[in-house]
Amino acid sequence: MSTQHRQGPAAGRRILIIGAGRGQVGLIRAAKRLGATTVVATLPDPHLPGLAEADEVAEVNILDADAVVQAARQAGVDAVATSCLDTGLEALGAVVDALGLRGLNRATARLCFDKLEMKERLEQAGVPTAVYVPVASPQEVPAALERTGLPAVVKATDLQGSSGVFMVDTAQEAMEAYTRAAELSRGGRVIIERFLEGREFGAQALIHDGEILHITVHGDDLATGAVPVPVGHHVPMEAEPALHEQAGRVIADAIHALGLRDCAINVDLMESRGIVHVIELTGRAGANGLPELMSTLYGLDYYEMVAREALDLEVRQTWQSASPWPGAVLALMLIDPEAHGTITSVHTPQELPEWATDLQVFKAVGETMKGFSSSNDCIGQVVVRGEGMEECRRRAEELGGAVRLEMSEVPGA
């Protein structure tokens, strides 16, 4: 459909979407359904699925905030958004500031993206977070470990997800991890953090005009590796009501500490010795099936809520009209640690059962599989609903088992 004939509450509007990866496809589609013309900001890459979905492309490095502002001006946009992506948050904030748009400002976006600045602000506000020490050289590692103890976590401060994050058990491993993290970090900044032993989980939230419309705690399924990698999320999370209540208070305090407003929020949490700690908090919807899980849980399009917020459309009434699913919901990434080779064919079910709300396959013919070490190696995702979590897990296994990849061996492997 020509954008001139597109209808909806955002008809005639132009929205810049930061990124064109799989995590932004749902947002692009939602903005188009609202009537907006979508412009994606990204460097050219034929493998990015959002390029085929967007109306226009602004070729720009989303790590260069000033260049993104210039591209936004040239594109004539009057809104900006992203989802499932931390990398371009500072650029998003820069566009908000420069063009006077709705959303995170640059200072707040930087707090979301930089783990050190985030933790400093949380600590100042009294929000529980793991003990941490900034480390600027290998010589500072031993002193940092005296404070954090072992095991510990070494983190590059400016990368997304588990990139540049290393679990260490010895001082020698910490020295090696520091070197690797510093090399991976764009700014060369590293922190060493006390390892918290306990229950890892997360939450999604939506804040509109300073009001927190919801905080939804979800359980996380983790795959073991160099660091635990989230490969699934589920609601409800089985826990005592007191834990849910404490998590809600801690999240609200963290939101206010960072000054987040007019955005979706993703929170990584850890309950250790009865205390809920904030691991990370960022002003965008979570990745790895979380927007689809939220959509299924609340009976609306969560990507649309993000787009509505950015476009300054009606949000509160739309949210209040949601029809929550009364049972359980599970979003599960499809992984295969044994998958090695070049994909020659992909087989998926032609129809989905009524209890399945999402099935996506991320990999395509010609791509090479090298097992599983990070979320980039996920084959796809499924989202299912049921009366309880046991039923959801059976259904996810059934649906995931219907996805088959045929592969040829990699020469020399």
TrEMBL record:
It comes from Actinomyces bowdenii. Gene3D superfamilies: 3.40.50.20, ATP-grasp fold, A domain, ATP-grasp fold, B domain. Its cofactor is Mn(2+). This is ATP-grasp domain-containing protein. Keywords: ATP-binding, Ligase, Nucleotide-binding. SUPFAM superfamilies: Glutathione synthetase ATP-binding domain-like, PreATP-grasp domain. The keyword Nucleotide-binding applies. Residues 119-311 form the ATP-grasp domain. Pfam families: GARS_A, LAL_C2. One of its GO terms (molecular function) is ATP binding. SMART domains: GARS_A. InterPro entries: ATP-dep_AA_Ligase, ATP-grasp, ATP_grasp_subdomain_1, LAL_C2, PreATP-grasp_dom_sf, PRibGlycinamid_synth_ATP-grasp.
